[in-house]
Amino acid sequence: MKNKWRILIKLGLLLSVNSCDNTSVMEVREIKKKDVVLPKFTGKTYFLAMDGDDEAEGQISSPLRSLNKLIPRLKAGDGVIIRGGRYREVNEIAQLKGSKDAPINFIAYPGEEVIFDGSVDLANNWQDMGNGILAQQLDFDVTQLFIDDEMFVTARWPNASFDDDSVFDMESTWRHQGKESTFGEMVDARPKSLKEGVNTQTLAETGIDFTGAVAVLNINAWMSYAQKVSKHEAGSNSFTYDTETMKGNLNMLKNDKFFAHKKKLGHYYLEGLMALDAEKEWYYTPEDKVVYIKLAEAELPLQKKIRAKVQDYNLVVKDSSHLSFTGIQFFATTLNFKKCTNMTLDDCHFKYPSFNKFVLGDFSKNKYTVIENEMNSGMEATNNRVLNCVFEYADGPAIKMTGYQNLLENNLFHHIDFTCIGGGDGGTIEMGKGRNTTFRYNTVHTAGNSEGYRSGPGDVIEYNYLHNMSLLQHDGSAINCGVSAIKDVKVNHNWIHGLRNKAAIRFDTSSMFTAYVNWGEGGTVNHNVAWDSAGLKLKGDRHVVYNNLSFDAFAAGKTDIALPCVPLMGGYNRYSQVNNNIAGAINGHFVVSKGVPLFCKNENNLQTNPRSILRDPTNLDFRPVNQLKGIGPYDFGVENYWIPGYKSDKCSMPIPGMNASNVKEDADLMWRPARTSESFNIYFSENKDEVENADMDSSCFKGNQSSNIFNPGKIDPQKHYYWRVDNKVDGYVTKGDAWTFGGLKEVQNYDYNYPEQSIPMAQEFSLPERLDKSVLTQESKRYVLELYKRFWWQENVNWYKELKKAESELEEGKRGYATIKKRLADFEKMERDYVIEEASKILKPSELLILENEFISAQKLSLNYLK
Fold first, then answer.
1. What span, in angstroms and rounded, lies between the C-alpha atoms of 201 and 159?
2. What is the SS3 assignment for 590?
3. Cα separations (Å) of 733 from 21, 23, 28, 37?
4. What pLDDT band is residue 31 in, cutting at 50, 70 and 90?
5. How far apart are CA 801 and CA 119, in angstroms?
6. Angle, to 10 degrees, between the axis of helix 817-839 and the axis of helix 845-857?
7. Cis geometry, peptide bond prior to residue 158 (ω within 30 degrees of 0)
8. Checking phi first, is residue 132 left (phi over 0); if not, alpha (psi -120 to 50) or beta?
9. H-helix segments, 660-751
10. Predicted structure pTM score
């Protein structure tokens, strides 16, 4: 990914965009200086260059060298244009303030690569250690290594690589925690359900003594740790690790019952010099400051540029406002903003921004990208913005932002967090400590942390494309809202898939299975599409859930949209509203076979195989075949098809997808528009070369249109087709990629033939005596009895008993007493509301009055009538 500036000479415009293709890089190099249009500022303009002089005036012909030396000169409205090069000096800015109408801008010179670099070049002074391993003595510490700006893998067992993304394949490249393991001792086992021949070597079979290695341990579901191997012997299938110096929710790990319950989820791998045996691996030993690498036999360091990370932050800004950074690349380093407001990052690129320091014996959370403000109830909007940026290959969260009313829009985050070390309150995108953040039109994929976007209260999370996430931990979700973050959160128009057994969207709880379980209320979830995941898991109550589509849950029999009404899991979901959704299963439990229906108001939901009513959900066409009267996330007959996620400088996200098969004969072609779009030139043919080389005079040119839906006519599903969409804006055309689809493949679609399940109810229950002797008809009595039995199913009985037990253990005025009393009162009210509300649908007004009087007169919950 390079920063790219297009020069529109005819119109005199300067357009800043990003591109991922090699052609764009070539175009950057072909830009001539005479074509460059430099931005203008309301204040002074300064220039920085690698060959500048800090005594110079700072003009284009006499640039300055150091940003640190320039900072004291800057005033509101000034701009700094930075020439190409690698800037390794740590830039520190404090109390620098622009204004709303006169921000201070820091901009990369158009067409030149400005890199804030946290690495240093290593000398070509390598010694051959045998077995393809080279070593070099250093006089400084390093934490990460690169060859030609591509990352090496820290030497590890089992081996893994970034070339094939096996680093993110936990089952294939981590080992399993054996059932004999205890907290402090790991017993090796092979992960289950692997193909034959994959990850078969046992710890004992390595023949290596791993004492002193670093064990990366996912032993606490949503939390992982790194610790030194205290004791191991070659040929042994177990090792010990120190538990005294570990940090983070250790009470759970020290709880034998919890550890035993989570043991089956545990995984680990080992890092150390003794594991250095694969190409593109490295290691560093701080005690003697020697760095080791292993290259392919044909490669020589002399032919490669090898760099090492030596820096956490290249840009540190404190107590500043209205600063804007545009077009800057960060390599092996990142930024840290504290107590800053109205800051803007635009079109910046963060490559390898953060990494762990395991080789130095530091197992704390990584230093990663942070824009942070102290939170308080009366704070004003911080208005920090991250726009059109790329974050890639970060170990640790991609970014953390706190504050009020921040914005992240049109960013790409990928290959994030390979070790997942740190507290359980993080995530791939860490927004949980802020509030009212807007996260819009972003793409996030290939991430290890159990939680993807971790929300704060009042956040707006919309039009994002999230996939292939929660890969290296357990008990997670792509979008996670903790208890305090649920109120007023709005999650809408997102696509989410590739989560395996993790939820797409989750409203979480804490302290489950106790009378003090915490849950949140008042979230809104609408117009989302989720598949190949654990669906929507929305604990709590008083949520509004509408027009979602969720299907193809990760395992047969799992609920696609679940609003659990199991109080000990967190919340009643009695007062939520669930309308106009499409899913294979929508109910009150995570498992369909439990037979638990929704306990709240719900209307116009379709529980069916979505392939029977949608055009082609397998190939991402989620539009209804016929008019569904407002049900589902897409309307029938729309002119444009919304596709969420990051918009680049050209059209992307073809539908049908690249190399898609089993495309229907009446398929439309659809795509995600470029960042700025007015219309599109369409090319379509059975000839690949024709499409790739076509222009508007070619026979495969099908016309220009403003809609992102094109009907190619009837196609033959057995044939292969090629197509291209060029983006057109202000008369300028950006050539798109050539896409292809076609052919038939045998597939096994999801089985939605769920057997009928009886609704769980109290088995033996008698009507309250006053009702039994009342003038209600026998039919009305039977109906009311069914309502009581439905309310007092086993989970509600368990909840009531847990509340009464907690009440008996507390004295009035003691901590928790008021909470328990309120929950008892709320539960009594809920029983009354439920029975009367449901009875009003059948009973006559006179009979309903009798029922209402029963609740007024009752001195106890009707649970006492359970036999």
1. 11
2. coil
3. 16, 14, 16, 19
4. very low
5. 61
6. 160
7. yes
8. left
9. 688-693
10. 0.93
